[in-house]
Amino acid sequence: MMKKNLFILFFLIISSNLSAQINVVSKKIFLDSLYREATPDNYSYLRVITNYSQKSVRYVVTDFYKNGRKRMTGTTLDRDILKKDGEFICYYKNGAKESVINYLEDHKSGKEINWYENQGKKSEKQNLWDSKTKKSQTLTLNYWDENKNQTVIDGNGEYEETDKFITQKGVIKDGLKQGIWQGNDLLRKTTFIDNYDRGILISGVSIDENNLKFSYSSLNEKQTGKKAEKKK
Fold first, then answer.
1. What gap in Å lies between CA 101 and CA 194, rounded to an integer?
2. Whether the predicted model's global pTM rises above the 0.70 cut
3. 110: which of 102, 130, 211, 231 fits an S-S bond (Cβ 3.0–4.6 Å)?
4. Residue 204 contacts by C-beta under 8 Å, 6 or more apart in sequence?
5. pLDDT tens by residue, 130-164
């Protein structure tokens, strides 16, 4: 009986120490739907940095839904700021795989595959990142709609995408956006019409909920909502 009690006590001490080590090594961050820091009472995702207290080249980061299932898993170069590096896998709330994307220094680089929630394939892309020029480019190679119809084949066809709060559609030529693209931004509450040439945005106009128009001639102007100052 004495030996049994000593064994139980030993087991409890070991378990307690192990639990303490896990708490020290890991860091939990509560995030809202826009991935801003939130409170335990009002959050959408829970982020866990597994090896937070250890000095490392990369840190394992995993986001969880409230139901306990994984939202995203991968590695970050910075334990306090998400700087993606390596393979990231995202999942739908039901546990189905949503995407597999490779990153290099927080930029998409390499093969990217996306799926619909029913696990039908959505798209195959190739991301290019030049660390010297700091320029990136995404080639859309193949795309299937929700009815499993392939509308982009070998980099050519019609494409529709939803990225977080932005939905847009247009023509893909040689893997790149070409011509007129139309869409809407739910976050900014705007609709827009963009004009692309070989994947580069050359002009566009957005209209907000008050019917105010804003014209732009670059992706930076579109994202910031400010005209770039012309050099004299």
1. 26
2. yes
3. 102
4. 192, 193, 194, 195, 215, 216, 217, 222
5. 988 988 999 999 999 999 999 999 999 999 988 87
